[in-house]
Amino acid sequence: MTTVEELRLRIRELENELIKSKQKQSDAEHHLRPKIDKMSAEVVDSNPYSRLMALKRMGIVQDYERIRSYSVAVVGVGGVGSVTAEMLTRCGIGKLLLFDYDKVELANMNRLFFQPHQAGLSKVQAAEHTLRNINPDVAFETHNYNITTMDNFTHFMERISHGGLEGKPVDLILSCVDNFEARMAINTACNELGQTWMESGVSENAVSGHIQLIIPGETACFACAPPLVVAANIDEKTLKKDGVCAASLPTTMGVVAGLLVQNVLKYLLGFGTVSYYLGYNAMQDFFPSMAMKANPQCDNAHCRRQQEEYKKKEAEQPKQEVVEEEEEVVHEDNEWGIELVSEVSEAELQDASGPVPDLPEGINVAYTIPKKDGVSGDTVEETEQSLEELMAQMKNM
Amino acid sequence: MTTVEELRLRIRELENELIKSKQKQSDAEHHLRPKIDKMSAEVVDSNPYSRLMALKRMGIVQDYERIRSYSVAVVGVGGVGSVTAEMLTRCGIGKLLLFDYDKVELANMNRLFFQPHQAGLSKVQAAEHTLRNINPDVAFETHNYNITTMDNFTHFMERISHGGLEGKPVDLILSCVDNFEARMAINTACNELGQTWMESGVSENAVSGHIQLIIPGETACFACAPPLVVAANIDEKTLKKDGVCAASLPTTMGVVAGLLVQNVLKYLLGFGTVSYYLGYNAMQDFFPSMAMKANPQCDNAHCRRQQEEYKKKEAEQPKQEVVEEEEEVVHEDNEWGIELVSEVSEAELQDASGPVPDLPEGINVAYTIPKKDGVSGDTVEETEQSLEELMAQMKNM
């Protein structure tokens, strides 16, 4: 009934249709813009860097192109880490190294970045795919593992030492993890290598967060002092219930990622004031900031060694005055009826029984130790001993 | 040479391949998760709302599900508006109305949300496609037009009056536009309708921004007082050069969007303190906040009418004490070497020659009027007149 000619025609039709279908698929999946060799300041719609290069004309950044010479490692590609990686990608960072062992789940969809069709993929794989599409000029290296196991930690150390551009160390490590162990692993690695890093965190009740700059030997490391968080005026008992899953909000995580990457840009490109610690209390829109020196009694030996080296370096250099004043925000009367609204939360440090530092209002320690009932005292000096106990307890959490 | 049987076989192969190819395409393009009838608090990986519903268990929000009953209009779907829309979508807002007349360009790729393959599409169309994929439970209505033209303004008024869920007015309008005219159009519409709205803005040098809550009759509207911005300690002359394209950063815009949507969530769901005005100075990580009362001499007649109605309502209700204290952040010495870092920028209000309000340090007026050389005085009271002149001048900018 059908002639050979008709069959051949049908085959040609089908072949054409198949080519078109595959082309369409390829367009959608791989619609990469061409790579750009040199960042241009030209003000045309087709230039993805025009609004960033404008920072030079505005007098904010002296040499924006320098961003291409930097590599940053992001550990933890969740609610904060993924947005952090996206911001750095859009800013045209030279290289990003991503570390995470988790998979994308629908339960992550209340935060920015990942999309429902990525559920089931590893976070680093899904992130790399999206980020490469956004900016093919950035180099990516991803590791789908938990940095806290012995083997992975060794590999992690190797990559942050040699995974930067041209085999150099990375310029900065960003901790965007959600647990104490991973933070301590990063802290240990950075103390050993003398690697500057920034830490970030969001509270389990989703309404506070913070960022912190850690320069080994110079500022307090994660083992120097109890990790600090912003008090959110929330009943601790409600928060610490066993088996309760943490709450999260795209707003809080977006703000923390934004403040973190802003600090990274200021640090790498040399503009504005880099924050040592900046907290965010969403309930009251309160943003405490401060700086914390390294603790000479830190129980991390590498931290103590870095402190010695920092002291030597400081002694060799001519002394510079450090400005540490704080101006008050003044409450003024005026004919326009402008009024300042209370923005400072109550400090809740009363429960802490360990050697808790005096902190600015609104900042709290992340962990407190229970009252020592019946624990026998050592011969070691009281204050030092309880600090070490505190750190040991925290490590076991 | 080829038998009919062989040709038939080839056709079957091609048909199968084509089906597979189209299926793959469809999966990638329309991998929508099924709609969810009722928000569940169940802690499983497949529940996109588990981390939001956890806000109830954490004691932050009493009735999170209520978010589904609200509709929000976002005017301007650029660097701030697109992220704002994405955050609200991921939070599960009931309905979003998006207004923008712009197209996606590669020059937008230094901000979050849009991707290079969307270049050339209208912003509202591209945004709706992405947002529907992220959360099919949200209802969307998009308008690809400029709200400041007469016809469009009438249509805009109609949609914010009847475009909410079940034909009700929208619950909130968010201004995420980048120009004075559009802000004034929203202000005019909201004053006439008594519609609460929030305004947002980012400076042309990309390093400061703000959000502001405007409740007609209660707080200052956009015509009551010169729009306020956070001073960024930047040379104004560098900034105001003609023909210079504005700089922008994904960080600043992400932070402003995060603070804006956080304020929306607090306002709609009733938790924390809703901010009237919150500024962000990225150079110093300084966040001034304040509140501003409506101006009885506002030249917007609808604003004055709303003020009268507000006064009547207030008089009818039993009086409540308003807390307007501000606690100081205290600088404390301590054994841990914690130091507060200066976070307040210098006020730069000296250049302003008009009747500029006394503002907290770090906040500035967005527009100042040149010194009145040779302008003849009117018989109208001096202060009122110059205010009106200021507003008239601003409208002409």
UniProtKB/TrEMBL annotation, chains A, B:
<dbReference type="Pfam" id="PF00899">
    <property type="entry name" value="ThiF"/>
</dbReference>
<dbReference type="GO" id="GO:0046872">
    <property type="term" value="F:metal ion binding"/>
</dbReference>
<dbReference type="InterPro" id="IPR029752">
    <property type="entry name" value="D-isomer_DH_CS1"/>
</dbReference>
<feature type="domain" description="THIF-type NAD/FAD binding fold">
    <location>
        <begin position="49"/>
        <end position="299"/>
    </location>
</feature>
<dbReference type="GO" id="GO:0071566">
    <property type="term" value="F:UFM1 activating enzyme activity"/>
</dbReference>
<dbReference type="InterPro" id="IPR035985">
    <property type="entry name" value="Ubiquitin-activating_enz"/>
</dbReference>
<protein>
    <recommendedName>
        <fullName>Ubiquitin-like modifier-activating enzyme 5</fullName>
    </recommendedName>
</protein>
<feature type="coiled-coil region">
    <location>
        <begin position="4"/>
        <end position="31"/>
    </location>
</feature>
<dbReference type="GO" id="GO:0005524">
    <property type="term" value="F:ATP binding"/>
</dbReference>
<dbReference type="InterPro" id="IPR000594">
    <property type="entry name" value="ThiF_NAD_FAD-bd"/>
</dbReference>
<keyword id="KW-0547">Nucleotide-binding</keyword>
<keyword id="KW-0862">Zinc</keyword>
<comment type="similarity">
    <text>Belongs to the ubiquitin-activating E1 family. UBA5 subfamily.</text>
</comment>
<keyword id="KW-0833">Ubl conjugation pathway</keyword>
<keyword id="KW-0175">Coiled coil</keyword>
<dbReference type="GO" id="GO:0071569">
    <property type="term" value="P:protein ufmylation"/>
</dbReference>
<dbReference type="InterPro" id="IPR045886">
    <property type="entry name" value="ThiF/MoeB/HesA"/>
</dbReference>
<dbReference type="GO" id="GO:0005829">
    <property type="term" value="C:cytosol"/>
</dbReference>
<keyword id="KW-0479">Metal-binding</keyword>
<keyword id="KW-0067">ATP-binding</keyword>
